[in-house]
Amino acid sequence: MGLERFKPDSTIFADEAVLRDGYRPDQLIERDNELKQYQSALKPVINGAPPKNLFLYGQTGVGKTLSSRMIIERLDEDQQNLDDVDVHFAELNCKSLNSSYQVAANLINEFREPEEQIKPTGYPSGMIYTMLFEELEKLDATHCLVVLDEIDAIGNDDDILYKLPRANDNGNVRETSVGVIGISNDFTFRDNLSARVKDSLCDEEIHFPPYDANELGNILKQRASEAFHDTTASQLDNGAFELSSDILEDDVIPLCAAFAAQDSGSARQALKLLYKAGDMARDEESDCITEEHVRRADEAVERDKVREELGRLPTQSKLTLYGLLLLEQESALPAKRNRIYERYVLAAKRIDADVRTDRTIHNRLSQLTLKGFLDVREQNKGPKGGSYYEYEFSIRADIVRDVLQGDSRLQELFDGIDGDMTLDKF
């Protein structure tokens, strides 16, 4: 048949970028309370006082990162009118970092020119922190706000979250007031911080709850008015949006909002769903987006979501899943925790990762079960045999394998194995 010619499409989308991850709206709706809290927490900076240390938490897609960017941009703009306040901002996404050392090393490079940057390994831990404090001390600024997004990636190694918030109190940095804004997608990460870190970091906490269906509907209506042809949205006195569209059937926005609200409360998921539905309508050369498009899009987005969520897991959780992959290869699932732990230890040692305790891996298994990646069943062998739990995948093992194999840190576990992951390969 040959290739069709590429040609512009104008049937469905006016500006499809509005529905994609990289889009930055001018206004963040349905987060007025959180933005107010956030702005209030940073007022000491504008007053020339030491900054508060903040901790933002909530699951993916609920506005934490976007709120931070908007607040920081506003603060950066407003400080230009003040003579005695000069705020420097350092932002770092910690997704691919799994230790406080790596965070500190990457922060040093955030402050340095490209030709002066350091390698992220090979220095004693004490030297890395000394270098970081020296960079902070050299800043020609009254304040430095360090934003650490997805800080939960470092797991239990939370030393950076103690040293940075206390850099001024401990005399490590004298000329610049240092404040830390930690952002986490993991509700349990905050609870697992050491007591000294909680005392240092959490001057103020802001919880971003999941969006409900009405809130998601308003977000979708606002974006839809820019994304699709012949679609307009007007904001009512009560803050809600009213939509008029020749492209979207009446049930499309409510159904997208309902699916996302029931699953995660994530605006990102709702927008992906609406975009995918529009994409399907375009491919079919349909004049409008229907409920059927949304239902088929939901199935496709769900598969993508599983991959994305797997990819966002910290290394220790991925190593735990790798242990289950080994057992699955041996046709030994479902398996008890001690068998999973044995294989986890082998994998962790092979890539020189820290080997966590059996209890820690038990907690990882529980978290993976709550996320829907694993099924757990209780086995009861009576008075003599006792009871125990067995775990197996609740999602396709080949999806898990594909995601883990794409992680550069775990690549060595797959190199040269050619699909055979039995224990004698270790």
Briefly, what is this?
By secondary structure, the protein is an alpha/beta fold.
Description of the structure:
The chain is of the alpha/beta class and 426 residues long. It is 45% helix and 13% strand. It is built from 17 helices and 10 strands. It has helices at residues 32-41, 43-46, 64-78, 100-111, 125-138, 160-163, 187-192, 195-201, 213-227, 252-263, 267-283, 291-311, 315-329, 337-350, 358-370, 382-385, 397-405; strands at residues 54-57, 87-93, 143-149, 177-184, 204-207, 231-235, 241-245, 335-336, 374-380, 387-393. The strands form 3 sheets. It has a 5-stranded parallel beta sheet, with helices on both faces. Strands 8-10-9 form a 3-stranded antiparallel beta sheet. The chain is globular, with a radius of gyration of 24 Å.
Give me the strand/helix succession. Answer: HHEHEHHEHEHHEHEEHHHHEHHEHEH
Largest beta sheet: strand ordering: 2-3-4-1-5
Please give the share of residues in helix: 40-55%
Main structural class: alpha/beta
Number of strands: 10
Average pLDDT confidence is 91
Radius of gyration: 24 Å
Distance between the termini: 48 Å
Shape assignment = globular
Write the layout of secondary structure elements.
Elements: H1 32-41, H2 43-46, E1 54-57, H3 64-78, E2 87-93, H4 100-111, H5 125-138, E3 143-149, H6 160-163, E4 177-184, H7 187-192, H8 195-201, E5 204-207, H9 213-227, E6 231-235, E7 241-245, H10 252-263, H11 267-283, H12 291-311, H13 315-329, E8 335-336, H14 337-350, H15 358-370, E9 374-380, H16 382-385, E10 387-393, H17 397-405
Parallel strand pairs: 1-4, 1-5, 2-3, 3-4
Antiparallel strand pairs: 6-7, 8-10, 9-10
Helix pairs in contact: 4-5, 9-10, 9-11, 10-11, 10-12, 11-12, 12-17, 13-14, 13-17
